[in-house]
Each structure stands twice: as structure tokens, then as C-alpha cells.
């Protein structure tokens, strides 16, 4: 299960998706999320699915990696589908005891499953095709106007990047600790939910200790390199928009606008 958590991982490549400016990809993700939440019918969801499929093909990451990342949240997706299926009023299709499935509930359940699935796959695709350092530069550049309001833009971007970077590291550390404790006779799989939760307590203590140790080592390493924030710092690779970035952003704007308009028109 832990190996299925792929958030924060970066898959190096030389595709158009990898070469795009990180600011372009961040803007596209925002437009993609807006389009998903504005999609209200089969046509608009089909348009968003086609856009996601095109991005996956261009990035050459592979649908298998994206689907593997969905495994940890399958329970949440199923729970959301059940809530929408049985607790949405409308025209009754099937009724048994206190449970009632309506036409609107079935439609809402399908749309919510698609929305959550596509949302996770789209955001995962961002981290798969963008390195943490590049993502930090893009975030900082986009939030640069907030510096006038004394918002610590550089520090916020750095914290978000470090959090994403250390997710795979902590997952790997957790897997090592679980393997070591299983070799000593620990059992994390048998018993009911409460017993499994109690069995995880001995796992959390060394994990927190390891996380704090890594954070302390990172702080010492940054101090040794005279890190003192973003003021006065220069960049080895300066971000520049290219023609492909403008074209992709324009395509994202057109798609999102079309989805919003079609949703309001009832198509």
C-alpha cells in the first residue's frame, strides 16, 4: 500500500510536458480544477477526460503510474459515491427498506467519482513532470506580487517544495521500519480496525524521530550554506515563457471557458 503512494515523485523525461515552464503547468492545473468543478453533464466531463488523456499521452508518464496513485484513496472515492448514491433526492429507480437509489443520485455518484479521480490524476501529473526545485521557482514567481503585502513568498514556496520532496522519503522510511518490525514479530494486518490502529503506534514513534532528525539535518545543511531567505539570491536557471507556453495556456483557457459556458447552457 505504501508503495502505491506516488505523490511528490518526479519522473524525468524530455517530453513537451516536461519542458513547459512550471508556471504554465501550475496555471493549467488551476484551470483544470476550475473546469472539473464547473463540469455538469456528460459532454463537459468527456471534454475534461479528453484533455487529461491528451496530457497523459504527451507526458509519457503512463496511465499505470497514475492509476497506482489512486489506490490509497479508493476508500474515500467509494464512500463519496455511496453518499451521493443513497442520499440524493430525485426520481426513484430502486428502493429497499430505508435505502433508495434515484436517477439523480446515480448520475451524481458517477460524476463525483469521475471528478475526484480526474482531480487526483491531474494534480499527480504536475508533480510527475516537474522537479521540486523547478516547482518552487514557479510557485515563487507566480506569488511574487504578494511580496508587496509582506507575504513570505519564498519561504512558503520552499516549505511546499520540501513537503512534496520528502513525501517519497518518508514513505520509504515507513516501509523500512515496518519491514524491520515485521522481522521482529510485529503484526500490522490481522485483527479489527482498532487493533490495527494500536499496532501502528510503535511504528509512529521511530517515524517521527526519523522525520525530526531529517528536518534538523536539513536545517543545519541550509545554515552551513549561508541560506538566509530569498532576498538577494540569484538563480542558475531563469524562467522564461516560450511560444509553446502561451499556446498551451490559451488552449487551457479555451477549454475551461467552453466547459463553463456549456454547463450554464445545460448541454
Question: Topology of this structure?
Answer:
Blueprint: H1 16-19, H2 22-38, H3 42-59, H4 63-68, H5 74-86, E1 92-96, E2 99-102, H6 103-129, H7 132-142, H8 153-183, H9 193-199, H10 201-224, H11 243-265
Antiparallel strand pairs: 1-2
Helix pairs in contact: 2-6, 2-7, 2-11, 3-6, 3-11, 5-6, 7-8, 8-10
Transmembrane segments: 26-53, 73-98, 110-131, 243-263
Family: Belongs to the energy-coupling factor EcfT family.
Subcellular location: Cell membrane
Structure description:
The chain has 267 residues and is mainly alpha-helical. It has 2 domains: 158 residues, no CATH class; 102 residues, no CATH class. The chain is 68% helix and 3% strand. It contains 11 helices and 2 strands, in the order αααααββαααααα. The chain has a two-stranded antiparallel ribbon with strand order 1-2. Helix 3 runs parallel beside helix 6. The longest helix is centred in the middle third of the chain and has 31 residues. The chain starts with 15 loop residues before the first helix and ends with a helix.
Amino acid at each position: 500500500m505504501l508503495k502505491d503512494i506516488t505523490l511528490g515523485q518526479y519522473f524525468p523525461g524530455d517530453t513537451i510536458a516536461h519542458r513547459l515552464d512550471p508556471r504554465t503547468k501550475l496555471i493549467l492545473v488551476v484551470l483544470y480544477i476550475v473546469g472539473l468543478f464547473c463540469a455538469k453533464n456528460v459532454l463537459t466531463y468527456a471534454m475534461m477526460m479528453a484533455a487529461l488523456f491528451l496530457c497523459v499521452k504527451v507526458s509519457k508518464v503512463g496511465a499505470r503510474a497514475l492509476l497506482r496513485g489512486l489506490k490509497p484513496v479508493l476508500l474515500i472515492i467509494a464512500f463519496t459515491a455511496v453518499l451521493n448514491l443513497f442520499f440524493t433526492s430525485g426520481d426513484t429507480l430502486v428502493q429497499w427498506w430505508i435505502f433508495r437509489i434515484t436517477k439523480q443520485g446515480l448520475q451524481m455518484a458517477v460524476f463525483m467519482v469521475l471528478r475526484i479521480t480526474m482531480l487526483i490524476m491531474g494534480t499527480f501529473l504536475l508533480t510527475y513532470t516537474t522537479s521540486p526545485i523547478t516547482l518552487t521557482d514557479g510557485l515563487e514567481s507566480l506569488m511574487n506580487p504578494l511580496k508587496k503585502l509582506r507575504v513570505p513568498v519564498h519561504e512558503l514556496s520552499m516549505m511546499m517544495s520540501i513537503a512534496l520532496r520528502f513525501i517519497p522519503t518518508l514513505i520509504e522510511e515507513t516501509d523500512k521500519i515496518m519491514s524491520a518490525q515485521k522481522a521482529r514479530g510485529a503484526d500490522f494486518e490481522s485483527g479489527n480496525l482498532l487493533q490495527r490502529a494500536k499496532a501502528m503506534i510503535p511504528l509512529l514513534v521511530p517515524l517521527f524521530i526519523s522525520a525530526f532528525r531529517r528536518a534538523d539535518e536539513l536545517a543545519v545543511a541550509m545554515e552551513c550554506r549561508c541560506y538566509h531567505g530569498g532576498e538577494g539570491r540569484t538563480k542558475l536557471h531563469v524562467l522564461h515563457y516560450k511560444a509553446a507556453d502561451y499556446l498551451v495556456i490559451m488552449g487551457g483557457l479555451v477549454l475551461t471557458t467552453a466547459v463553463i459556458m456549456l454547463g450554464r447552457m445545460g448541454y
